[in-house]
């Protein structure tokens, strides 16, 4: 840039000298002032004009021989915007008392103290930037370091933004703490209002709610009640009373917890996998249902120098349907009530619920009268899910890969002859339907029809002994296709005719021809609606437990709202 400017200037002077006229060339173009912005352009135009006859160099003392660069100039006057610098161009900024800034541009000549002026760039009210190239200061505006026009505003904006951010952060923290405390109080209020009648200490409740998920309505995920006992310490708070049954994996005891009776299913340490399996199934999301055993807690403890695994559940003093039928006779309304509520529980197990926390379909695999428990309001609930299988997508989660499990007397034909398809979940549900048909037959025998009541007997009592073998049951059920006998008196009662038709469709030899539990539930609901309910439920004596007598509905006004802890029935 410097070389090009010098060349254009020298070219203009040579043109004037060559043409040699006495025209005052430099005065004509205003060159002596050295401040015109059109020096170069006018010289070129003059050189291209061949007819110019007046060329005379005047004021040649004003023509500098050491011109270096051009600079933008705002300090040179009203009509001058370019100046010629012998040292450097400058751009300055000056802050006025009112806060405004005055900008300036210009040239430093040989007599200027440029070396000192260019160093004025500290935290003062004026700053100067210098440069040494052609028109280098044209687009440069220098701000004073001591405070630009926006420096104070910037500080204010930053301070306000930080204050607002801190305030919002405090609000978020306070809101989260308040929401958590409100949710905790709501859960504690629900627990205190729970009709189950079991109330732990304040410390017990705090430990329990920290263990359970607060977003699941303070529920254990199964059963018809709210958990009120601390799983990690419940074994220390329960005093075992007496053993009321023994099964495959251990014993069933009644226990006392703060003047209340609970049921404790005790697994030996060798059956840890069985204990874990049943606990996991009871903790399945959305398993909670009024017709499924209300699971409360699980714990591991030591008793008599032996490790024991405890599964604690609600206790029902009326016992299982097996015990209830042996002690009592039924009318048609109560028969349908027991069967219909039991079918509700099995239908809920078989139902798959899709969602974020959906419930998989579950097949029981050990449906029998001993695993169906009678509650104080004379409804039933399903217990003992230790052998249950879950449907995981299109696959079946079979524990220990054993298809021939359950009670032999209630096994379906495809289970006895081992033709069941273990990859099809529907096959396991169809086996449950077959077994439930036998349970309905058991209950129907104890129903009074025209004053006639049959003695309680288990299914196939007339063809096999007390403990039949697999081969005996396979021959009777599969080879002979034998089914329980239908009493003649049932064929002349409308309600019993409906039950007989239903049972025959449930224990059909071909599994795919059997009804679903949903269809069974709807049929029982319809049959029950055709029978007028009694004005008052009959009274049935509860079971006595080591000196403690749990009051029934007739003995206590609020017993129907305080459904006592259910017996986790013993396995046969």
Overall description:
This protein is an alpha+beta fold and 572 residues long. The protein has helices at 2-19, 25-29, 39-48, 114-117, 151-192, 202-211, 234-237, 272-282, 321-327, 332-350, 413-416, 425-445, 470-479, 494-506, 517-529, and strands spanning 69-72, 82-85, 88-95, 101-108, 126-131, 239-246, 250-257, 260-268, 295-303, 306-313, 362-363, 372-374, 380-382, 389-392, 395-397, 544-545, 548-549. It has a five-stranded antiparallel beta sheet. A hairpin with a 5-residue loop joins strand 12 (372-374) and strand 13 (380-382). Helix 1 packs across helix 3 (39-48) and helix 12 (425-445) runs antiparallel to helix 14 (494-506). 37% of the residues are buried.
Runs in which pLDDT lies below 50 for 5 or more consecutive residues are: 16-40, 42-65, 193-230, 545-572
Query: Could you tell me the number of beta strands?
Result: 17
First and last CA, distance: 107 Å
Helix content: 25-40%
The CATH superfamily of the largest domain is identified as Transferase(Phosphotransferase) domain 1
Could you tell me the CATH topology label of the largest domain.
Answer: Transferase(Phosphotransferase), domain 1
Structural shape: elongated
| Helix count from the secondary structure assignment | 15
- Structural domain tally: 4
- According to CATH, what is the class of the largest domain? Mainly Alpha
The residue-averaged pLDDT reads 75
Strand ordering within the main sheet: 6-7-8-10-9
Write the CATH architecture name of the largest domain: Orthogonal Bundle
């Amino acid at each position: 840039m410097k070389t090009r400017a010098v060349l254009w200037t020298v070219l203009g002077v040579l043109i004037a000298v060559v043409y040699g006229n006495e025209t005052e060339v430099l005065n004509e173009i205003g060159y002596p002032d050295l401040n015109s912005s059109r020096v170069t352009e006018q010289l070129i135009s003059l050189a291209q004009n061949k007819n110019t006859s007046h060329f005379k160099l005047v004021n040649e003392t004003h023509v500098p021989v050491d011109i270096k660069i051009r600079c933008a100039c705002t300090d040179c006057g009203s009509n001058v915007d370019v100046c010629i610098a012998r040292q450097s161009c400058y751009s300055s900024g000056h802050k006025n008392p009112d806060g405004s800034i005055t900008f300036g541009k210009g040239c430093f000549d040989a007599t200027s103290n440029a070396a000192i002026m260019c160093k004025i760039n500290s935290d003062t009210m004026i700053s100067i930037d210098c440069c040494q190239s052609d028109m280098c200061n044209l687009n440069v505006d220098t701000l004073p370091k001591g405070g630009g026009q926006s420096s104070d505003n910037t500080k204010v904006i930053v301070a306000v933004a930080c204050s607002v951010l801190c305030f919002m952060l405090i609000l978020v923290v306070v809101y989260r703490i308040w929401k958590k405390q409100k949710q905790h109080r709501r859960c504690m209020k629900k627990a205190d209002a729970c009709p189950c009648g079991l109330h732990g200490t304040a410390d017990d409740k705090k430990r329990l709610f920290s263990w359970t998920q607060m977003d699941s309505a303070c529920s254990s995920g199964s059963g018809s009640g709210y958990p009120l006992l601390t799983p990690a310490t419940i074994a220390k708070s329960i005093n075992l009373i007496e053993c009321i049954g023994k099964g495959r994996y251990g014993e069933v005891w009644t226990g006392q917890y703060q003047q209340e009776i609970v049921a404790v299913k005790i697994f030996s340490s060798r059956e840890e996998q069985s204990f874990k399996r049943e606990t996991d199934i009871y903790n399945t999301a959305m398993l909670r249902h009024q017709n499924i055993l209300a699971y409360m807690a699980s714990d591991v403890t030591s008793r008599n120098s032996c490790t024991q695994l405890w599964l604690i559940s609600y206790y029902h003093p009326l016992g299982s349907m097996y015990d209830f039928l042996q002690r009592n006779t039924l009318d048609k309304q109560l028969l349908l009530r027991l069967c219909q509520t039991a079918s509700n529980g099995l239908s809920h197990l078989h139902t798959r619920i899709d969602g974020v926390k959906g419930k998989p379909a579950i097949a029981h695999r050990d449906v029998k009268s001993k695993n169906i428990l009678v509650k104080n309001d004379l409804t039933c609930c399903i217990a003992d899910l230790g052998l249950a299988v879950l449907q995981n997508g299109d696959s079946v989660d079979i524990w220990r890969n054993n298809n021939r499990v359950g009670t032999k007397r209630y096994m379906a034909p495809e289970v006895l002859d081992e033709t069941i398809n273990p990859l099809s979940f529907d096959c396991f549900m169809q086996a449950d339907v077959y077994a439930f048909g036998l349970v309905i037959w058991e209950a129907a025998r104890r129903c009074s029809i025209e004053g006639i009541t049959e003695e309680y007997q288990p299914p196939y009592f007339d063809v096999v002994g007390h403990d039949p073998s697999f081969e005996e049951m396979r021959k009777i059920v599969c080879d002979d296709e034998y089914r329980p006998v239908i009493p003649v008196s049932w064929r002349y009662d409308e309600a019993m005719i409906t039950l007989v038709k239903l049972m025959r469709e449930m224990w059909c030899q071909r599994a795919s021809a059997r009804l679903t539990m949903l269809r069974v539930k709807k049929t029982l609901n319809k049959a029950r609606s055709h029978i007028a309910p009694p004005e008052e439920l009959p009274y049935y004596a509860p079971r006595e437990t080591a000196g403690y007598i749990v009051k029934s509905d007739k003995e206590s006004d609020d017993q129907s709202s305080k459904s006592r802890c259910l017996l986790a029935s013993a396995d046969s």
